[in-house]
């Protein structure tokens, strides 16, 4: 009932005529032709209004002599180094053996010897030393790291670690830290891809040996491992290696 009564009272008040004094207060003031104060007496900081039409040829772009120049001394982004190439550009099939021709490429070489259980850290150290000497000489590597296994026995093996470069230095640098320059092995070869950890690479060599025996193929007494991906540790399952057997 209270709500209903309140509604009726509001409706009556809305319909009742207002007193004359209140009507006079709510009447709109008469219109005036006088300019507004900001136009008639502008303050010192007031900008006179622009009543002209916009110039269609006007542009807001800075003039040539007022254009903003790039800050001096800003470093110019250098181009990314070209990816290092494998000895054979066409990738091998992980489930197949293919016959390839290895081209001789100039390379920085470091000879070493290590035990089988220390193969990965020894090769990594050899490649790092070669990279360091190339950086000192200002020579950029162009190919993937290579290990040529020359002599092996039950305890370990002798190897030549190689990193191909674009061209042989014109002035032959003096041998430093055991690093010298030569060429990578070349000639007709069989490529056996290995994808998986280095701990499992013996299985690929067993496949290689069985293939050579079945085909009655005679190869040289050295094998080449080319590391398509970086040789990080023995357990790296993403390791990609090309194993080459040079045919006699």
Account of the protein in words:
- With 248 residues, this protein is an alpha+beta fold.
- The protein contains 5 helices and 8 strands.
- The chain has helices at 2-15, 20-26, 37-40, 119-137, 201-215; strands at 98-102, 106-115, 146-152, 156-164, 180-183, 187-195, 219-227, 240-247.
- A hairpin with a 3-residue loop joins strand 3 (146-152) and strand 4.
- The longest helix is centred in the middle third of the chain and has 19 residues, at 119-137.
In short:
This protein has 248 residues and is of the alpha+beta class. 24% of the residues lie in helices and 25% in strands.
Reconstruct the topology from this structure.
Layout: H1 2-15, H2 20-26, H3 37-40, E1 98-102, E2 106-115, H4 119-137, E3 146-152, E4 156-164, E5 180-183, E6 187-195, H5 201-215, E7 219-227, E8 240-247
Antiparallel strand pairs: 1-6, 2-4, 2-5, 3-4, 3-7, 6-8, 7-8
Key attributes of the depicted protein:
24% helix, 25% strand, disordered N terminus, alpha+beta, 8 strands, 8-stranded antiparallel sheet
